[in-house]
Design brief:
The chain is α+β, with helices and mostly antiparallel strands. The protein is built from 6 helices and 5 strands. A 3-stranded antiparallel beta sheet has the order 3-4-5, with no helix packed on it. Strands 1-2 form a two-stranded parallel sheet. The longest helix is centred in the C-terminal third of the chain and has 16 residues, at about 135-150.
């Protein structure tokens, strides 16, 4: 249910693990205790259990994705989200992205029009997914601007 939010947080540069709903609460709590991560959940029972274990947790129970993102950033006392997206992460596997210096390496991997229309490309070292600043980034920047006005 929170997979889309996890993906957006990664795009915004936040180190984010998404755990599927079929993982039991004990495993999630063990991971939180071991890694000192923040739990984002819409599961009230898991939220209250995590609080008993003194884990940092945020309950997400708003109607819209943007309201839940505002809840997260407000809780973390984040006042502004960077629209430069300077700390890129893979939206699939959460690994940091590296800039591709040699565009010639992309010639057989993506359309030539994409190469012509963009000057920065990124690659995930772990899953090899390629990224560039396409129209989806414009939508993300608009989302960030909306969030920043509400923070």
């Amino acid at each position: 249910m929170l997979g889309k939010i996890a993906k957006k947080l990664r795009i915004l540069g936040f180190d984010t693990i998404y755990i599927s709903s079929n993982t039991n609460d004990r495993e999630i709590l063990d991971l939180l205790l071991k890694t000192k991560r923040i739990l984002l959940t819409s599961d009230k029972e898991l939220f209250y259990r995590s609080k008993r274990y003194k884990c940092h947790s945020i309950i997400l129970n708003k109607n819209t994705e943007i309201e839940n993102l505002i809840t997260i950033f407000s809780n973390l006392q984040i006042k502004v989200i960077d629209t430069l997206l300077s700390c890129h992460r893979c939206s699939i596997c959460n690994n940091k992205l590296e800039i591709i210096e040699d565009i010639n390496l992309l010639k057989n991997k993506i359309y030539q029009t994409v190469i012509k229309n963009n000057n920065e490309f990124y690659k995930c070292k772990r899953c090899n997914k390629l990224y560039w600043h396409g129209s989806h980034i414009k939508n993300i920047i608009l989302l960030i601007e909306r969030i920043n006005k509400m923070l």
